[in-house]
Amino acid sequence: MSVTPVKPVLVGDNDEVQRPSREQALEAVRTLLAWAGDDPDRPGLVDTPKRVVDAYGEWFDGYDADVEKELSRTFEDVQGYDDMVLLRDIEVESHCEHHMAPFLGKAFVAYIPNEKVVGISKLARVVEIFARRLQTQEVLTNQIAAAIESHLQPQGVAILIDAEHQCMTTRGVHHRHVSTITTRFTGAFKSDAALKDRFLKLAKG
Ligand SMILES: Nc1nc2c(ncn2[C@@H]2O[C@H](COP(=O)(O)OP(=O)(O)OP(=O)(O)O)[C@@H](O)[C@H]2O)c(=O)[nH]1
Ligand SMILES: [Zn+2]
């Protein structure tokens, strides 16, 4: 099975998109409140558009963040370290592009360095940046792998995301406690079944 490589930054790098003003965003929330059947001018709701717009600013601040910057500082004095670096249980707080509903879970990010490593916090930041954009869990998984791959040229990358989608739990099909697991393996993780297995065992804890 061949897998098409994904460019590191697919979503959110579209400078062509004209952003509406904050005023327009506030008005859009007022419209939604009225559409839902409430009165946007009642005292309890007058500050709601501002709160919602601020919350969106936080949930989607990945569009303004720079993955390249986070991964640009590498450390080359690794003294021959050439085994897996694995970050477990990175919190994932994202929103699906289909419903803008939260999906929440954990990411497991591993790579095998090729003479250079990156600060471990930067890997968590990369997860956060991509998570704070709209996409699917599959695309999020691929984007994280592709960013590490292109900046570190490691011997291999393994990503696993385990998340619960609120568009499935709080609406629509209403199935609670269904978790979705996505994975992406490149290089040595793809070609070496024992290595892949070791990653999966370590990730499970
Ligand atoms: N593959 C994938 N699907 C997702 C993700 N997030 C949400 N979805 C699904 O996207 C699909 C959208 O389906 P549609 O039929 O277009 O939308 P809908 O009528 O709201 O679908 P229901 O959720 O089944 O009510 C649903 O099946 C969701 O469960 C994701 O990250 N990956
Ligand atoms: Zn959804």
From TrEMBL:
Zn(2+) binds at residues 96, 99, 167. One of its GO terms (cellular component) is cytoplasm. SUPFAM superfamilies: Tetrahydrobiopterin biosynthesis enzymes-like. Pathway: Cofactor biosynthesis; 7,8-dihydroneopterin triphosphate biosynthesis; 7,8-dihydroneopterin triphosphate from GTP: step 1/1. The keyword Hydrolase applies. InterPro entries: GTP-CH-I_C/QueF, GTP-CH-I_N, GTP_CycHdrlase_I, GTP_CycHdrlase_I_CS, GTP_CycHdrlase_I_dom. Its EC number is 3.5.4.16. One of its GO terms (molecular function) is zinc ion binding. GO terms for biological process: one-carbon metabolic process; tetrahydrobiopterin biosynthetic process; tetrahydrofolate biosynthetic process. It catalyses: GTP + H2O = 7,8-dihydroneopterin 3'-triphosphate + formate + H(+). Belongs to the GTP cyclohydrolase I family. PANTHER family: GTP CYCLOHYDROLASE 1, GTP CYCLOHYDROLASE I. It comes from Brevundimonas basaltis. This is GTP cyclohydrolase 1. The lineage of its organism: Bacteria, Pseudomonadati, Pseudomonadota, Alphaproteobacteria, Caulobacterales. Signal peptide: none annotated. Toroid-shaped homodecamer, composed of two pentamers of five dimers. Homopolymer.
